[in-house]
Write a structure and sequence with these properties.
Chain C: GO terms for molecular function: ATP binding. The complex is a heterotrimer of chains A (336), B (297) and C (693). Chain B has 297 residues and is mainly alpha-helical. Chain B is 69% helix and 0% strand. Chain B contains nine helices and no strands. With 693 residues, chain C is of the alpha/beta class. Helix content of chain C is 29%, strand content 21%. The chains are: A mainly alpha (336), B mainly alpha (297), C alpha/beta (693). The interface between A and B is large, with 56 and 45 residues.
């Protein structure tokens, strides 16, 4: 098992280096010269100034050398300076990350807690009303555009009915709870701020449901299909022939096998959450990475986009690594 | 039923009485009903896209600030937006770009990916290894984020966005096509064709490709909805289209803060939802039709 | 209406373990209601053994599943009764059913590869129902579980108990399945084709276990199989099924010697036998079983029956007592008469003298290793040693059989000889030309002369082409027809040659049965007038009767067209019936080669001895070979068979060469002929006197 983990880690590191390479290439093969864009028309018409700028930003060096510099910067945690905020990109990311982590984690848990039992129930009572409902729900979940769903929720439950608080992580006039993590739920408990906890939780409800919608759909579908498949396997018939109770067959024999594809999907689901977070946070004015991505994309803030892509890709790699490892825990055939 | 036979007694190994077999019509409806509905939705939207200039009541870009943000009425079925443009007319025109972008990305992505996948499977060896590592590399990015980065690098505009999506789109088709072609390669009828001395090109065209098309068609159909969603998403983020052009994603973006004037954002989003549902229904139906084993999964 | 009511009452006071009366099970399908089991009755007393035999689709497996009510959703038991020790099984409530299943009645299924849950440890799967039925507390159950594994002959049972299923071979898994089946000492064990997925030497081991369980613990056994030989080696009585009905029920030995239903008669005589005259034609009946949706009004076998009388077409025969303790569903034998023996077919002309001409197809020291894809970037590449130095020569007009168990490299050999694979070392010569490394383009002109027939009739025809397109393709590709019209005429001829109607050309493969598809496959191989045909297990996927039809066809074609066959098979009896010469393969090498008649009469290599004796034929003395073939990933040193050989000695550490030990006979053994099976008392001795199958 240790060797397996080691191999996986090494592979992930290799992929991360390759990913950085791809991102660097994207950043440097932009059509249009970033120098011209920054200097303005007058300065750009003077070849001497242009040359000095090129030298200053290292643009006169060959591509592989620039990649070396980029990589060295990366290893020192230097992702460049954001054009829009004039701050180091890494600082920005550090500031916005907790909000997204909090939101994505809640949404992820929500989709597991709803999706897996729903998928099991739909498979066990196939073609029954639970199945029909689960299928309709998952279809809507994966088909509805996240940004629209976010808007509709806000329009109905905040604008229309007034049941939910408005956009943002907390009430606009409240102070954010103090604490070491930046996760408001944990920080408010940490500092004993009960009102802050309630406020944060209330603000989390709508965005986490919106963010989880597509993932719930995916997990329900996959669980259902995997359970149906698993329930048709010979070993289920053998278990029936053993005279085991139907629930024992479902939970002890069929489910562990069905979870294997569901866990594989977990990684994909997480990627969905990260992508969905861009839309959800934008609509809910959620001060997280997603909104940062949106503002950076809207402002064509290139260093920021590169930085986010890199961070998100590495997170994605780590999630996939975790998926591979839990895969090995679930399925003895993978361990070797 | 050829003989009088009471099938209503007994059950699957459980002798519970009176479990009547569902009627044939009901089972067929259950199996293919959604596919027909999905096909209807898709065809309707394609017609709308083609006929938009003739069926929309107003010009999509006709600005009239005197009637801005009017709620839905008989004159403006879906109300007007911040510039007083008719939401309904813009929605109909928006179908053109959304559908065109979806079809372009998926069809080109499928063509590129399938070619790469089949070639990889057929050549094996180093080329196969290199191509598959490349797909691994692309697949290790969350697709929308990578597309976002590329689209941002290329600049705003539908063509650039489609190009960016293509970059992240082909690998899944390459994966599937390669897996299918590998299965085909070891099929006995392909071996038989080799033993008969047929040329490789003929074997690929006549024996391997036709038998990989079914699953690919299913993925293409299911993916059309996906591509439309992604394109709308990128447009929502401001990358897909340059402002006056009507597009569903950017229409939602324009109305996203207008919680009181919900119609500006609600209707374009609903349009996306129906198209995606339509393609999903079609894809599921196609899969059931091609693979009887997956029926009603 | 059914003869079942006239069965003589049992003399004992105890009710039989299993009593089935007029069982009827249907499938609800889109096309209509399929009557899969349509009136089956039998009883099994305590400690008795009963076989159920029939071809695929006869309803035998559905019967087995109905007994434990393990049917799928779309199946319904619509009539009859099943009594277990007098208890009505069909009336049991779910909880009663659960308490009964796995406790008093157990079942073992066909495919051991999928019957075990891949993510649970073996021990848990063996013991969970001991605990759930309240037989023992978990700790005690675990001990019993290990004991059961040991009893079933699982190697290193303690370690095996803690392992997962994927670490075991099919044979070992079936032992585990048997352990699961008998964990609670059931009074009844139902085994549905338990050995079909296994090799013949492993099959012999499992059948031995079944017999042992019956003798040792008095477990009543219902064994379902398509193979009368398998049934005869375990079961005293047998029910023969056809088209959902029981058509004959009698002592196994009686059915084998003197079948009273024409279908049973066909079944008994279609199987090639090791004691039949060499080259004899097999008895086969034409046609196919009736469409289960449109069953004939009279006897269901009437359309195919060689003995039918007028009454058969109009009146459906009931199960009638035709002799004491024997029942058959037939008007012809209703008065107690026997069916005639099949006419002894003429022995075909002796094969052409093969020494005169140089061999048509020849392999010299052929080697093929497959490099497995690496598990990861850093793992060492593993190699499958599929073929490890094979010398073989196929003469003109000859049929040469290659036999061996799965994984012995015989299919790879076929693909090397037809150059679907490129050899790692050695050479392949066809018509004197070296084609070992010939390019596809260089091979193309030779291809027509060297053709191949494949194993799986469902996979070897492109599902998207009509039979006509499939057959026209090679003719046009090689310019064998002047025009499309001429090519189409040739297709018609080809279809007639293989016994199909020319009109079938416009149909797609899925419209045909397995046997018909295999005929199309043969027609395709013949389209280019080949000299040699390599046939890779051409009949192993077919039911015995269809198998006999196809083998007869291939034999006719050989005589008419002067073909040479290289015939790959795992079934020794088939090879013996079909081939002039036989080569036996083990672990990628030929261990023995010689004339078919002599090899089967007096095998020289210990492996051949074990192989021939493992065939489940009633009355044969059996050598049950222990162990399983070693992995092809790492070849053993010395003689490859050493580890399983009953007469291995120190000298066997040296690999034995394949050398001529008698005129025309070669063997790769240091002590050829040393191992001859000792005459041991055969358990089913009463069968020995009867005419075998």
């Amino acid at each position: 098992m240790a060797r397996y983990i080691g191999k996986r880690l090494l592979l992930a590191a290799l992929m991360a280096v390759l990913a950085s390479c791809v991102i660097f290439l994207i950043a440097n093969l932009v059509p249009g010269d970033p120098v011209l864009a920054q200097l303005g028309d007058v300065a750009a018409s003077d070849p001497a100034i242009v040359a000095r700028w090129r030298a200053k930003w290292g643009l006169d060096l060959p591509l592989w050398e620039r990649y070396g510099i980029f990589l060295t910067g990366l290893l020192h945690g230097d992702l460049g300076i954001s054009i829009a905020t004039h701050r180091p990109v890494l600082d920005d990311i550090r500031q916005y990350a907790p909000a997204t982590i909090e939101l994505a984690t809640i949404a992820f848990l929500l989709s597991l807690v709803i999706g897996i039992p729903l998928g099991i129930a739909a498979a066990v009572r196939r073609d029954g009303w639970i199945d029909s409902a689960a299928r309709a729900l998952s279809l809507l979940g994966v088909s509805a555009p996240t940004f629209w769903l976010a808007f509709m929720m806000l329009a109905i439950f905040y604008g229309g009915l007034g049941w939910a608080p408005g956009p943002g992580r907390i009430d606009p006039i409240a102070f954010p709870p103090e604490g070491p993590t930046g996760l408001f739920l944990i920080d408010s408990i940490w500092s004993g701020d009960w009102e802050g906890f309630q406020d944060s939780l209330a603000h989390l409800v709508l965005p986490s449901i919106v963010l989880a919608a597509a993932t719930i759909g995916l997990i329900t579908r996959t669980t259902r299909a995997a359970m149906l498949d698993s329930l048709q396997q010979d070993y289920v018939r053998v278990s029936r022939a053993k005279g085991l109770h139907e629930w024992a067959i479902i939970l002890r024999h069929a489910l562990p096998n069905a979870l294997v594809p569901v866990v594989t999907l977990g990684g994909l689901a997480y990627a969905n959450l990260l992508a969905g977070a861009v839309m959800t946070e934008t609509v809910f004015a959620w001060p997280g990475l997603g909104r940062y991505t949106f503002t950076s994309a809207a402002a064509l803030d290139f260093p920021a986009i590169v930085g986010i892509t890199l961070v998100v890709s590495i997170t994605f790699l780590l999630v996939n690594l975790a998926v591979d490892l839990s895969y090995a825990l679930l399925d003895p055939r993978v361990r070797r | 039923m050829s003989a009088p036979l009471d099938v209503s007694i007994g059950a699957p190994g459980i002798a519970v009485p009176a479990v009547a077999a569902p009627s044939r019509l009901r089972r067929r409806l259950r199996r293919y009903g959604p596919a027909w509905v999905g096909g209807g939705i898709v065809i309707a939207w394609v017609l709308v896209a083609l006929l938009a200039p003739w069926i929309s009541p107003y010009h999509p870009d006709a600005v009239d600030v005197s009637i801005r943000l009017r709620p839905p009425s008989l004159a403006h079925w879906m109300g007007t937006d911040t510039l007083g443009r008719d939401v309904f007319s813009r929605l109909l025109h928006g179908a053109r770009l959304s559908l065109a972008a979806g079809f372009t990305v998926v069809i080109l992505g499928a063509a590129i990916g399938t070619t790469i996948g089949i070639v990889a499977a057929w050549t094996r060896g180093f080329g196969d290894e290199a191509l598959m590592r490349l797909t691994d590399l692309v697949l290790c990015f969350p697709p929308i984020i990578l597309a976002l980065a590329i689209a941002a690098a290329l600049g705003i505009g539908p063509l650039n966005t489609i190009l960016a999506m293509l970059v992240v789109w082909w690998p899944k088709f390459a994966r599937l096509a390669r897996a299918l072609a590998l299965v085909q390669r070891s099929q006995e009828y392909v071996e038989a064709a080799t033993v008969l001395g047929l040329r490789p090109r003929r074997i690929l065209a006549r024996h391997i490709l036709p038998n990989t098309l079914g699953p690919l068609a299913v993925l293409v159909t299911l993916d059309l909805g996906n591509a439309i969603l992604t394109f709308a998403g990128l447009s929502f983020l401001g990358l897909g289209v340059i402002p006056p052009m009507p597009e569903w994603g950017s229409m939602v973006a324009e109305g996203r803060e207008l919680v009181e004037q919900w119609w500006v954002a609600a209707f374009p989003g609903l349009a996306i939802l129906t198209v995606v549902v339509g393609f999903n229904f079609c894809g599921d139906g196609l899969r059931d039709w091609l693979d009887p084993r997956s029926r009603s999964r | 209406m059914d003869g079942s009511l006239t069965t003589p009452p049992t003399t004992t006071l105890d009710p039989p373990v299993l009593e089935v009366e007029d069982l009827r099970t249907v499938f609800l399908t889109d096309a209509g209601v399929v009557r899969a089991v349509d009136g089956v009755s039998f009883r099994v007393g305590a400690g008795e053994t009963l076989g159920i035999v029939g071809e695929s689709g006869s309803g035998k497996s559905v019967t087995a599943l109905s007994l434990l009510r393990l049917l799928d959703e779309q199946a319904r038991i619509v009539g009859g009764t099943i009594r277990f020790k007098g208890q009505d099984v069909l009336a049991m409530r779910p909880a009663e059913l659960r308490a009964w299943r796995g406790d008093q009645a157990a079942m073992v299924f066909q495919d051991p590869m999928t019957g075990l849950n891949p993510v649970l440890r073996i021990l848990r799967q063996v013991t969970e129902h001991i605990v759930s039925h309240g037989r023992m507390p978990p700790a005690e159950a675990r001990q019993r579980g290990v004991g059961l594994l040991r009893r079933m002959g699982v190697a290193a049972p303690e370690r095996a108990a803690a392992s997962y299923p994927h670490q075991f071979s099919g044979g070992m898994r079936q032992r585990v399945m048997l352990a699961i089946g008998v964990a609670n000492d059931p009074a009844l064990l139902i085994a549905d084709e338990p050995t079909t997925a296994l090799d013949v030497t492993i099959q012999a081991q499992i059948l031995d276990l079944l017999r042992g369980l019956n003798e040792e613990f008095g477990t009543a056994i219902v064994l379902v199989s398509h193979d009368l030989g398998v049934i005869a080696s375990v079961c005293r009585r047998v029910v023969v099924m056809y088209a959902g009905e029981a058509v004959e029920e009698a002592a196994t030995a009686e059915v084998l010697a003197d079948p009273r239903h024409p279908y049973a008669w066909a079944l008994v005589n279609a199987v090639p036998r090791l004691d039949a005259p060499i080259g004899a034609r097999l008895t086969s009946i034409e046609g196919m079983p009736p469409d289960p949706l449109h069953l004939p009004q009279g006897c269901r076998f009437e359309p195919r029956c060689p003995f039918k009388i007028a009454r058969c077409a109009t009146e459906h025969p009931p199960m009638l007592e035709v002799a004491p303790g024997r029942r058959a569903r037939c008007w012809v034998t209703a008065d107690g008469r026997s069916l005639p023996r099949p006419a002894v077919p003429a022995t075909p002309a002796a094969p052409a003298a093969r020494d005169a001409a140089p061999p048509l197809l020849e392999a010299r020291d052929l080697v093929k290793h497959f490099v497995l894809p690496r598990r990861s970037l850093f793992a060492p590449a593993e190699k499958v040693h599929a073929v490890n130095g094979v010398d073989i020569a196929l003469g003109r007009g000859e049929s040469l059989g290659v036999v061996g168990e799965s994984g012995c490299g015989k299919s790879t050999l076929a693909r090397l000889l037809t150059r679907l694979h490129e050899p790692t070392a050695g050479s392949v010569l066809f018509e004197g030309r070296d084609i070992t490394h010939a390019s596809p383009a260089a091979l193309r002109p030779l291809r027509p002369r060297l053709q191949m027939v494949f194993q799986d009739p469902y996979a070897s025809l492109n599902p998207r082409m009509t039979v006509g397109e499939i057959l026209v393709e090679p003719i046009l590709a090689h310019g064998r027809a002047a025009s499309r019209q001429a090519a189409r005429e040739r297709v018609g001829e080809l279809l007639t040659t293989v016994g199909l109607k020319p009109g079938f050309a416009s149909r797609y493969p899925h419209e045909f049965s397995g046997g018909q598809r295999q005929r199309v496959s043969i027609a395709r191989a013949l389209a280019l007038d080949p000299a040699a045909v390599v046939a890779d297990e051409p009949v192993s996927a077919l039911d015995v009767n269809v198998q006999a039809q196809v083998l007869n066809l291939m034999q006719d074609l050989q005589q008419r067209l002067g073909l040479s066959y290289l015939f790959i098979a795992h079934d020794l009896a088939v090879v013996r019936a079909f081939c002039d010469r036989v080569a036996v393969m083990y672990l990628g090498r030929i261990v023995e080669e010689g004339p078919a008649a002599e090899i089967f009469a007096a095998p020289l290599h210990p492996y051949t001895v074990a192989l021939t004796s493992a065939i489940p034929e009633p009355g044969r003395q059996r050598v049950v070979l222990g162990g399983e073939p070693p992995s092809t990933l790492r070849l053993p040193e010395g003689c490859a068979f050493r580890a399983r050989c009953p007469v291995a000695r120190a000298a066997c550490a040296e690999p034995p060469p394949l050398r001529e030990v008698a005129p025309g006979r070669r063997a790769a053994c240091h002590f050829p002929g040393d191992f001859a099976p000792h005459p041991t008392p055969v358990r089913s001795a009463s069968l020995a006197d009867h005419q075998r199958r």
